[in-house]
Amino acid sequence: MASVLGPFLNTVLAASVLILLSGMAMIGQEAAQAAQTGGAFFMPPSWTAMAAGGLLMMAIYAYIRFALYPRLNAAVSASDWPAGGRAMGGIRRWVGVNLLLGIAIVAIVFLG
């Protein structure tokens, strides 16, 4: 499992960066258009919730990738299976939290 997670987590990192950059670009375009027309730009609450939720999800991903995954690799390298199991349990727990956050964000955006 540890050998499969590495490439997957690297792909998630690339996707997260692309999502962050594209979201910033879209918000920037809207703000620029408002400025060109002389209006004020205010992000709708659903956009703010989506952006804040996305940043929180990225922070959770960073914890998984840069704290828990190295613990898993170290445990596997040392054949310390109980420590590896604890690391996998933590990864599973935080992936579940991220999944629930993602579902909540989609619901907020479509309902708000």
TrEMBL record:
Q: Which GO terms describe its cellular component?
A: membrane
Which residue spans adopt a coiled-coil conformation according to this UniProt entry?
none
Q: Which organism is it from?
A: Achromobacter denitrificans
Q: What is this protein called?
A: CopD family protein
Q: Which UniProt keywords apply?
A: Membrane, Transmembrane, Transmembrane helix
Stored InterPro entries: Cu-R_CopD_dom (IPR008457)
A Pfam match? CopD
Using the record's annotation, list all stretches that form the Copper resistance protein D domain: 4-110
